[in-house]
Amino acid sequence: MNLFTDATVAEPEGAWGAVAAGAEYFIGIFQEGGNVLWSLMGGILPTLVVLLTAVNALVRIIGPEKIENLGRKAAQPGLIWYPVRYMVLPFLAVFFLTNPMAYTMGRFLPERFKPAFYDSAVSFVHPITGLFPHANPGELFVYLGIAAGITQLGYGLGDLAIRFLLVGLVVIFIRGIVTELITRRMMAKREGAAA
After folding, report:
1. Is the peptide bond between 100 and the residue preceding it cis, with omega within 30 degrees of 0?
2. What is the CA radius of gyration of the chain?
3. Could you report the per-residue pLDDT of 146-171, keeping only the tens digit for each?
4. What is the distance between the alpha carbons of residues 48 and 44, in angstroms, rounded to a whole number?
């Protein structure tokens, strides 16, 4: 008789059974996390690492001071600067600086434009993820959730990513203008009340 092969162990019951089940559940959470990490390492993570490296290299080639100069130029008065201030600048800020550093680009704008720039930039961190997932990898699940449904219907993702980006640009432009108007009105009321 072999003690190691013939022995049977009864499942723990009562309090010990609950502790054993809790331990199995606890380790199961980490095993599932490991499975998810393993699947990401073969999927999106290498793409994100390469994209981040390429964007950082591009910023170094262009020079951060040139990007900052655009922020200063966008603060100029006139209707011609609205698209620059609320479309071009938020796009470049989110693309180059990524979320959440993109909001710091607003420091080059006068106080009256800062809330509108922030509204535009924060509204753009989702639409950009379809084409440029490095810009906001923490929120990539929003785009991937939509993309999963589109893929199940048999459509390609390239068209979705382009449309997502273009609609996002239109929305941030409108939001920037509206927020600037609201800010201007609130600042005028505050100055009127202070006088």
Report:
1. yes
2. 26
3. 888 888 888 888 888 898 899 999 99
4. 6
